[in-house]
């Protein structure tokens, strides 16, 4: 066996940028694509768009200076001629490409000004009998300062010196009809010339399937391990006594739907266990998650434990606060409010009441989990719209819990339905409860797509609806790059609408307002004092005003699917028929057109989320891209759903019957990423 090559520190740093920290990681640094240097093609077969390798003699070579310094050559073989063009070049290249030289060039052919050409082809000097490569040449993802050649050498060396034991027991490999692991890795780095290019490219080749399966399997094992470890951790067992819950339910003007009852029961059973619950409560917008959360909170409170109820925005947190204040005060429970925008003194007072245990229910934004706030006996953490918090914060919360020997239970809620494949793959460490039906008495929302050219008609619609006693939202355009611009545009829209509707009472709410101001406007709208509410997307999550039955979303083409679905969910909460108008500006991009079509054709959040997953990919959907969570590198959970199913079943089996193999998988795939995957 060859000796492991020495890797200089500068190269190590560059490798680290690619996520390669151990020599073995090089093996799983797989090519993006391949170049075929195993054959020579006659120049006469060149056509634009084709990547090919040709060989011949340089018949002409000059450095032109206009429009910019360019090395121009002509290469001829027995069948034809082709131009080679270089915009950046070294003296060594000029001499290699001098007239009369024999060279081999590989590159993509395109149509240039003077006919067919290759721009920056890879060239090498040849003799007539210089041998061709025997396998396809891998092209790896790389980073500045690390050349393909250097990376290829490192990987080739790793392939020689590192052994790749097969972790998958033979009988499982046979049953799943998978190729051998080490064989697959070798093939992907150095495929034989006759390997069907398409199967390498679309990753359907059996070698790719094996790698993707292993990646998914490692992820599943990691999640399972984490899930199982939970039963070794301790939490307070919160007995379901039920008297507070019953009293609350009696006081409500509605009965729980059977879906709500089912999930409430699942949560209640979890809370009784002496191990921390980690449950995700999924329910479409308006499905009634808050009452379920309140019942969970009461179970903790009945046992004398504290509850922290956290929401991602002040508006939403405040709504929860007001709602729970209303629901729970009659039971003798007074929640405390804590958010970043409270005055220093109020904050201190709230923190004191939490620390002394005087209050058992704290509601607020993430300020609840800042350093200064110490809980007396925290039994349950409820996180609403948890996907809004991003993976990083979820991790922080998790770590915070770990400091203590006894951890709080966690209930996470989300109205962004997670497609099943995604839930299986990224949330496998959580238990999931789903509210799959909406409360009765809701009338479905009609959605209309209207071009901005017909804005005036929309104005009339808003006017007549409001004059007829309905209430309406006008959602302002989203401006991605600047919050300031967004604010300006919201102010401007507000001004225009005030002018357009002198007879209506119009309000404005946006993200930069003081929270007391925001609350004031929201309450006025809720009470019916305002008829039209101009809002930025701050109202996207959780706002609940049943009498509002018309929503206009301005520049809907700029918004994402999840956002549109959430916004639309703000109407259709009462008995009257609701309408959501999506105003869009022409011309529409292909993506915007698709999104509007999806939102127009679907009302079911899960169906929309499936489409979203296809359009955006899992990273974006989870909001995890920025936070650096280890995403899948090779498998695609849409295309590889069958592999995911097998991986899930196999993970359980390995952990039960072949723990060494399971460890091998974690070691190979997860050594550094373990922490993040658990977030
Ligand atoms: P979300 O799941 O979007 O958080 P909410 O908890 O805000 O939904 O509930 C939406 C609305 O439905 C609220 O006004 C709530 O009081 C009401 N609601 C909840 N459950 C029921 C039910 N079983 N029957 C009728 N209305 C309900
Ligand atoms: Mg909600």
Biggest β-sheet description: 7 strands, parallel
**Considering the protein shown, what is the CATH homologous superfamily of the largest domain?**
P-loop containing nucleotide triphosphate hydrolases
* Heteromolecules bound: adenosine-5'-diphosphate, magnesium ion
Q: Remind me, CATH topology of the largest domain?
A: Rossmann fold
Strands of the largest sheet, in order across it? Answer: 12-13-11-14-16-10-17
> What is the class of the largest domain in the CATH system?
Alpha Beta
Extract low-pLDDT stretches: 624-630, 673-679
| Class based on secondary structure composition and strand pairing | alpha/beta
The proportion of residues forming helix, as a percent range, comes to 40-55%
Shape: globular
Number of domains: 4
The count of strands amounts to: 23
Tell me the strand percentage band.
Answer: 15-25%
Mean pLDDT level: 87
User: What Rg do the Cα atoms give?
Assistant: 31 Å
3D architecture notes:
- There is one protein chain.
- With 679 residues, the chain is of the alpha/beta class.
- The chain folds into four domains: 9-33 and 141-204, no CATH class; 39-132, Beta Barrel (OB fold (Dihydrolipoamide Acetyltransferase, E2P)); 238-435, P-loop containing nucleotide triphosphate hydrolases (Rossmann fold); 445-602, 3-Layer(aba) Sandwich (Rossmann fold).
- It contains 25 helices and 23 strands.
- The strands form five sheets. It has a seven-stranded parallel sheet with strand order 12-13-11-14-16-10-17, sandwiched between helices. It has a six-stranded parallel sheet with strand order 18-23-22-19-21-20, sandwiched between helices. The chain has a five-stranded mixed β-barrel with strand order 2-3-4-6-5.
- The chain is globular and about 95 Å long.
- Magnesium ion is lined by residues 289-290, 384, 542.
């Amino acid at each position: 066996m060859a000796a492991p090559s020495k890797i200089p520190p500068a190269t190590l740093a560059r490798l680290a940028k690619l996520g390669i920290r151990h020599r073995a990681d090089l093996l799983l640094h797989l090519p993006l694509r391949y170049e075929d240097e195993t054959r020579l093609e006659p120049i006469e077969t060149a056509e634009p768009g084709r990547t090919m390798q040709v060989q011949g003699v340089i018949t002409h070579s000059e450095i032109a200076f206009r429009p910019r310094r360019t090395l121009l050559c002509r290469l001829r073989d027995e069948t034809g001629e082709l131009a080679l063009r270089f915009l950046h070049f070294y003296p060594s290249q000029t001499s290699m490409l001098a007239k009369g030289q024999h060279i081999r060039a590989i590159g993509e052919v395109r149509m240039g000004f003077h006919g067919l050409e290759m721009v920056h082809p890879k060239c090498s000097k040849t003799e007539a009998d210089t041998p061709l490569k025997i396998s396809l040449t891998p092209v790896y993802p790389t980073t500045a300062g690390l050349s393909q050649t250097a990376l290829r050498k490192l990987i080739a060396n790793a392939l020689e010196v590192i052994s790749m034991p097969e972790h998958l027991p033979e009988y499982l490999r046979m049953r799943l009809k998978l190729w051998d692991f080490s064989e697959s890795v070798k093939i992907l780095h150095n495929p034989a010339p006759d390997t069907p290019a398409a199967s390498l490219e679309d990753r359907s080749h059996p070698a790719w399937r094996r790698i993707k399966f292993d990646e998914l399997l490692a992820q599943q094992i990691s999640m399972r391990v984490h899930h199982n470890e939970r039963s070794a951790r301790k939490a307070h067992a919160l007995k379901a006594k039920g008297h507070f819950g019953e009293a609350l339910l009696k006081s409500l003007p509605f009965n729980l739907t059977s879906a709500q009852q089912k999930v409430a029961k699942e949560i209640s059973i979890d809370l009784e266990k002496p191990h921390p619950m980690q449950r995700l409560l999924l329910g479409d917008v308006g499905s009634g998650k808050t009452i379920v959360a309140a019942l969970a909170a009461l179970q903790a409170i009945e046992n004398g434990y504290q509850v922290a109820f956290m929401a991602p925005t002040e508006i939403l947190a405040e709504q929860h606060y007001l709602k729970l204040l209303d629901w729970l005060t009659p039971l003798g429970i007074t929640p405390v409010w804590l958010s970043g925008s409270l005055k220093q003194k109020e904050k201190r007072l709230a923190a004191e009441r939490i620390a002394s245990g005087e209050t058992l229910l704290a509601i607020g934004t993430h300020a609840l989990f800042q350093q200064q706030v110490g809980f007396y006996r925290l039994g349950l953490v409820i996180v609403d719209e948890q996907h809004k918090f991003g993976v990083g914060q979820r991790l922080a919360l998790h770590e915070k819990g770990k400091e203590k020997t006894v951890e709080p239970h966690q209930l996470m809620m989300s109205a962004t339905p997670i497609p099943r494949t995604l839930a299986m793959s990224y949330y496998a460490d959580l238990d999931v409860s789903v509210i799959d039906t909406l409360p009765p008495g809701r009338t479905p929302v009609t959605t209309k797509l209207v071009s901005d050219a017909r804005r005036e008609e929309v104005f009339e619609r808003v006017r007549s609806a409001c004059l007829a006693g309905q209430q309406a939202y006008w959602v302002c355009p989203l401006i991605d790059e600047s919050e300031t611009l967004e604010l300006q545009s919201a102010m401007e829209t507000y001004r225009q609408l005030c002018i357009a509707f002198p007879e209506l009472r119009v309000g404005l709410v946006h993200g930069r307002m003081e929270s007391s101001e925001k609350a004031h406007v929201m309450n006025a709208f809720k009470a019916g004092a305002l008829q039209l509410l101009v809002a930025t997307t701050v109202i996207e999550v959780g706002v609940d005003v049943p009498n509002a039955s018309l929503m206009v979303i301005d520049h809907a083409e700029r918004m994402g699917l999840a956002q549109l679905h959430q916004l639309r969910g703000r109407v259709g909460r009462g008995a009257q028929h609701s309408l959501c108008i999506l105003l869009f500006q022409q011309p529409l991009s292909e993506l915007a057109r698709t999104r509007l079509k999806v939102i127009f054709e679907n009302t079911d959040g899960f169906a929309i989320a499936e489409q979203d997953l296809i359009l955006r990919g899992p990273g974006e959907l989870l909001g995890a891209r920025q936070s650096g969570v280890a995403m899948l590198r090779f498998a695609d959970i849409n295309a590889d759903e069958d592999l995911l199913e097998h991986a899930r079943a196999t993970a359980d089996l390995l952990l039960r019957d072949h723990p060494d193999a399971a460890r091998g998988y974690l070691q190979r795939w997860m050594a550094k990423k373990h922490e993040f995957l658990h977030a």
